[in-house]
Amino acid sequence: MLRARLEGRDDVFCRPVLFSPEGAPERYEVEFRIRSICSVEDVESLLKPGVENRPVFAERFRMVIDLPEEYPCVDAPADFRFLVRDAVGAPVPHPWHPNIRWFGPMAGHVCLNRYDSFSSLVWGVERVEDYLRYRRYHALNEPPYPEDQQVAAWVIRRGEPNEWIYFDL
Q: Is residue 126 left, alpha or beta, with left meaning phi > 0 and alpha meaning psi from -120 to 50?
C-alpha cells in the first residue's frame, strides 16, 4: 500500500531495505524532497534575548521505518525516525519540528501523536509529510506534549511571531 500510494510522486520516495527470512519488509527507507526547516542560525543561542535565530532550510531528508516482528500490533508499533548521521557518522540535516526530536540521543525520533498509528504506514508517512510542510504541529507544552520542547519553544517564541512558520501547500 505504501509504495502504491507514493507511486508517481516526485517529492516522497519509499523502498524496503531490510527483509525477514520469510521475505516480509522489516525496514523501509523514505526520502522526502521537501524544503523544510532543519536548524536555526545559532543553536547554541536558541532563545537568548536579542538573538533573532532565523531558520535554516534543507531540501532532502531521509527517514527509516522499522517494523517489529509483531507489527501490526498495538504493542508493537512501527518506529519512525529520521537519519541524523550518514554512513560514516557525519551529521546530515534532519527536521526542525516540535514533533520530531532534534536534540539529544533520541534525535530524529518522530512522535506521531496517535495511539493507533501502528495500523497504517501510509498514514504515518503522510503525517510526517505534513510535519515537514508545517501543516501540522503541536508546540504547546500540554498533552500530548511536543517531542522536542526546545524546538517547540523556538516555534512559539520565534517562528510564529516572525511568520517563519508557514503552511507549504
A: alpha
Where is 151: in which H helix or E strand? helix 149-154
CATH fold of 2-159, please?
Ubiquitin Conjugating Enzyme (3.10.110)
pLDDT digits (tens, 9 = 90+) for 70-110: 887 777 788 999 999 999 999 999 999 999 999 999 999 99
pLDDT score for 113: 65
* SS3 state of residue 79: strand
CA distance 72 to 138: 26
User: Closest by alpha carbon to 84, among 63, 98, 112, 59?
Assistant: 63
136 by DSSP, 3-state: which? coil
> What is the pTM (predicted TM-score) of this model?
0.92
Where on the phi/psi map is residue 113: left (φ > 0), alpha (ψ -120 to 50), or beta? left
> Can you tell me the distance from the alpha carbon of 5 to that of 8, in angstroms, rounded to the nearest whole number?
9
Domain ranges of the chain: 2-159
Residue 112 scores a pLDDT above 80: yes
| CA distance linking residue 93 with residue 102, whole number of Å | 10
Task: Tell me the sheet residues that pair with 66.
Answer: 27, 79
